[in-house]
Specification:
This protein has 498 residues and is an alpha/beta fold. The chain has 20 helices and 17 strands.
């Protein structure tokens, strides 16, 4: 093998334009001129480090192996000559903001008693841009608040004098036994919270016997996340993969082949996000104004702060195919022979269509209230299915995603026919404490669920049924038909102007 060519800092610095773009990562010199325009986070952040060393911001967000897996070997042009590195080379580009010390330190993990405690700590200790990205929701936050508040409007109808000495929280998801009926929802760029990102979540979920759904926009390649797990004993993978379909279909096809090769057999196809909603808190924290040292390789550099703001959610979703529709399902079935679940169903009519298409499951979700504000809360969609499409419960598995913060929320969803629930933000906030925090969160929810089961009067989730809850406070909001009960569309001919 030929010895890698050495380049001085002066030579590398000459390649600093969009058409002639080199960067250095961990001593290796890469030519990104062709790749930069297709970078999921946009070309701006790469241009910021053109002709410079991008090792620190790259490693804060990306897996070390990502470059070698994404680019061909011809793009590795050589190595950095470290014999004459100047002080000016080592300095970050002028656009980067200095790191500052956080004013608040995390309290000991054992002092946290609820998901709300995790959220409170995250708000105080995560970098402002990270907090804005994960906590933000669409426009006036109506749906975001309703996701949680509607669980509070459903009341239990407990049964007493039951022998509840032993309780079993186990359930089955896609034929796989899990220790409790929850999943970790897919979320982008978890490395913003903790250096181990999705890998730390995967270890925590596996150790506690629950499933993690890995995002297309994860910080690490899916094979890196899978490799961090303990080998399963001929059992199914504890991972599910969430798919955003790319405008470049061949890229999605290659990704699906890679996922299949890892033993993953279920794909969650996200269908509620052809584009990102207006998340004002995320847009408001502009990367070039913030002074908290946000990792810059998230794809939000100064050139990307436009008149709309600096929203990570908007920028990272630029590759998603906005034209995806029901007619594309045959394409997906052709390239994926495993189970397919639609994530983002918000009405009974689409649930019926999913069942008719022969899919394996649906996730009732409004994307955490992050896209279309005033879309229905997830638990209300579950009631919509009962009233307008009860047959779907016999044909596919139904999951509820959005607003679950307590064991009581989990039990209410199970009583109303959900196979399981999915949580996103609580897992991200628990990741603030690494794998240990993820495990602590799961134990906390398991304990709350077990206590709720006991006090309702059941010992197994198989005993849960709708009669254990009272939904009268929200029943009047459940649609009674496909159309509007009395308003009708009327078309009036346009009159010619005189």
């Amino acid at each position: 093998m030929a010895e890698a060519k050495l380049f001085s800092t002066q030579q590398i610095a000459e390649h600093n334009t969009a058409k002639d773009l080199w960067i250095v990562v961990d001593g290796q010199v890469w030519d990104l001129a062709e790749f930069a325009p297709a970078h999921p986070g946009g070309i701006g952040i790469i241009l910021q480090y053109a002709g410079r060393d991008a090792s620190q911001p790259y490693n804060e967000v990306h897996a070390p192996s990502l470059l070698t897996k994404t680019l061909t070997s011809s793009k590795l042009v050589g190595t950095l000559d470290t014999s004459a590195i100047s002080d000016s080379w080592a300095k970050p580009p002028p656009q980067q903001n200095p790191q500052v010390q956080l004013k608040n330190e995390k309290p000991p993990l054992f002092t946290l008693l609820s998901t709300h405690d995790f959220e409170s700590v995250a708000e105080k200790t995560l970098a402002p841009k990270t907090w804005a990205f994960y906590s933000s929701a669409a426009t006036d936050l109506v749906t975001h608040r309703a996701n949680q508040s509607f669980f509070d409007r459903i009341w239990f109808r407990p049964r007493v004098l039951r022998n509840i000495r032993t309780r079993d929280t186990r359930a089955r998801i896609m034929g796989q036994e899990v220790e409790l009926p929850i999943m970790c929802s897919p979320a982008a760029m978890a490395k913003l919270v903790h250096p181990d990102g999705e890998k730390a979540i995967a270890r925590g979920c596996q150790s506690k016997g629950i499933i993690q759904c890995v995002s297309t926009n994860a910080s690490f390649p899916i094979d890196d996340i899978a490799s961090t797990l303990s080998p399963s004993q001929n059992g199914p993978s504890p991972l599910i993969f969430q798919l955003y379909v790319s405008k470049t279909r061949s890229a999605s096809e290659a990704l699906l082949r890679q996922v299949w090769s890892l033993g993953i057999r279920t794909v969650f196809l996200t269908v509620d996000s052809p584009l990102a909603g207006k998340r004002e808190a995320d847009e408001r924290v502009r990367m070039d104004d913030d002074q908290q040292g946000i990792p810059m390789m998230t794809g939000v550099g100064k050139p990307l702060n436009d008149k709309r703001g600096g929203g990570l959610g908007r920028i990272t979703g630029s590759f998603i195919d906005e034209g995806l529709d029901w007619s594309d399902l045959p394409w997906l079935k052709k390239h994926w022979k495993g189970r397919i679940v639609l994530k983002g169903i918000m009405c009974a009519q689409d649930a019926t269509r999913a069942a008719e298409e022969g899919l394996d499951g649906i996730v009732l979700s409004n994307h955490g209230g992050r896209n279309l504000d005033t879309s229905p809360p997830a638990i209300l969609i579950l009631l919509d299915l009962h009233r307008n499409a009860p047959h779907v419960f016999d044909k596919l598995e139904v999951y509820v995603d959005g607003g679950i913060r307590r064991g009581t929320d989990i039990l209410k969803a199970i009583c109303l026919g959900a196979t399981a629930v999915s949580l996103g933000r609580p897992f991200l906030y628990s990741l603030n404490y690494g794998t240990e925090g993820v495990e602590y969160l799961i134990d906390m929810l398991k304990d709350e669920l077990s206590v709720a089961m006991a006090l309702v009067g059941i010992t197994s989730l198989d005993e849960a049924h709708p009669g254990l809850v009272n939904t009268n406070d929200v029943d009047y909001l459940v649609p009674t038909m496909e159309g509007h009960p009395y308003a009708r569309k009327r078309t009036r001919p346009l009159k010619a102007r005189m």
